[in-house]
Amino acid sequence: MLMPDFELFYGKTKITQDVKPYLLDLTYSDNLAGQSDELSVTFEDRDFKWINGWFPTQGDELSLSRGYQSLRLVNLG
Predict the structure, then answer these.
(1) What is the DSSP string of the chain?
(2) What are phi and psi for residue 44, nearest 5 degrees?
């Protein structure tokens, strides 16, 4: 049975393992041509991790690769 998998990048740094314990929701929408795709990620901040160096600022980039465990993940940008 195939199990879903993903990798999340903040800038060029892979943050998947750092954020997995806090991940509540991850949604990707592949919109039609002429429209931007959408990525929404919701975290729980029980340890106040998102204050200091993890706090995103305007212009920061978040990118996603997804697919299935033991198969090559597809970079969605």
Answers:
(1) ---EEEEEEETTEE-HHHHGGGEEEEEEE-PPTTS--EEEEEE--TT-TTTGGG---TT--EEEEEEETTSPPEE--
(2) -90, 135
Q: What is the pLDDT of residues 26-75, one digit of tens each?
A: 999 988 888 888 999 998 988 887 777 667 788 888 899 999 999 999 99
Tally of CB atoms within 10 A around 7: 15
Q: What's the predicted TM-score (pTM) here?
A: 0.78
Closest CA to 41 of 62, 60, 59, 55: 62
